[in-house]
Amino acid sequence: SLSAGLDLPGRFLFATLTLMTLIAILVFIEEAVYIYRKIPSSKRSIIIWINAAAPVISTTSCIGMWVPRSTMFTDFTAGIFFAIVIHKFLMMMIKECGGQKMLLRRFENGRFTISTGPCCCCCLCLPRVPITRQTLFWLKLGTFQFAVFRPVLIFLSIVLWTNGNYVLYNVSPKGPALWISCFIGALTLFALWAVGIMFRKVRILLKCKNIIPKFALYQFIVILNHLQTTIINIFATQKIIPCAPPLSSTARGSYIAQQLLIMEMFLITVISRVVYRRKYHDLEPPECAAEEPGDKKQTP
C-alpha cells in the first residue's frame, strides 16, 4: 500500500496535509453555520456554495493523494463542483446589486464592455453592449451552460474510461480525451468570459461589498485548479518530472499537483472566511440602494 511505502518524512508530509484538509473543512463548517444564521435566505445558499469551493477541492485532492486509483474520480468531482461555483459567483454579483431588476435600474443607460478576458481582451474594437434583460440572460446562460455540460462531458469521460477507451494523458487526435478536453476548455473560457464582463461593470458599485478581493480569490481557485494542474500534468507526460519508483512520471506529477492544491486551498479557505465575514458586519443592501440615484447619474 501507499502508506507502507512511505518513509518518515513522507508520512509526516501526508499527515500534515491531511490535518490541513481537516482544518479547512472545520473552518468551512463554522463559516457555513455563521452564514446560515446571519445572512438573508436569498443570498445564503449562493455564498455557502462559493465558500465551499476551496474545501471541496482540498478534500478531493487529499482523497486522491491517499488513494491514487481514485484520482480520476476526485478530479472529476472537483471539476463538476467548481463548474457550479462559477455560475453561483455570477449570480452572487447580481444578488449583491439588489437582484436583476435593481441592477437594470442602476445601469439603465449603461453598457457592458465585452472586450475583456479571457476570450476577447485583445479585441478592443468590439462594441459595448446595452445592459438589458436579454444581455443579462446571455451572461447567465454563459455560466449555466458550463454548469450543465461539464458534468455531462465528465460523466461521458468516466464511462469511456471504465471501458478502456479514455486515457487522460493521451493527446492523440484519434482518442476521445483530446476532443473532450478541448470542448471543456472552450466551455470554460465562455463561462469565465461572462463572469469577467459582469465583474468589470459592477466592481466599482460593489466595492463596498468587498467584491474585488472575492473576485481575486475566485480567480486564484480557477488558476490553481486548472492552469497549475494542467502545466504539472504536461511536465509529467513529457518526463520533465522524473519518475521515482514505484511512482511513474504521471503518478508523481499527480501527487505534486494534489499536495500543492491542498496547501493552496487551505490558505484560500482561511482568507475567504475573513473576506466574506467582514462584509456582513459593515454593509447591508439598503445602503447601496440609497446610493442608487447617484449611481444612475454617473453611469455613462
From TrEMBL:
Topology in the lipid bilayer: Multi-pass membrane protein
Question: Sorted alphabetically, which InterPro entries does this protein's record hold?
Answer: Ostalpha/TMEM184C
What parts of the sequence cross the membrane? 12-34, 46-67, 73-94, 137-161, 176-195
The answer to whether the entry has keyword Ribosomal protein is: no
Q: Which Pfam families match?
A: Solute_trans_a
Does the keyword field hold Heme?
no
- Keywords of the record: Membrane, Transmembrane, Transmembrane helix
Tell me what this protein is called. Answer: OSTA protein
Indicate the secretion signal residues: none
Q: Cellular component terms, GO, for this chain's entry? A: membrane
